[in-house]
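Milestone M4 deliverable, item 7.
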Amino acid sequence: MMITAKIGTAVLFASLTMGVMAQDVKTDADKVGHDTKTATKDTGRAIAHGSEKAYDKTASGTKKVYHKTASGTEKAADKTADGTKTAYHKTASGTKKAADATADGTKKAYDKTADGTKKAVDKVDGK
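Output delivered:
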């Protein structure tokens, strides 16, 4: 009977130990599940926050680029207008000088032609 009592005690002890171990495993599993849920929420918040920061930086960068482009375009337009005015004035001045030079050359050619013609006529007339 002693052996039966010892076996019975061992079985009872093993059952209680297994029950406690099973309870510990369930508690650990619950903790792991809770920790996983918390970590998932934290990760979701971090991703949302990171996405929001990235969006804000992208929006800010886009605005800066837009303003720099607009400013650069305005400066380029002003420089083009100034260059066009300068070119116009230089062309007008150059055209006037060329016209004056052509008129002077034409007058000189006319005068030489007239003098040559008069001399030729005088020679023919014997003067």
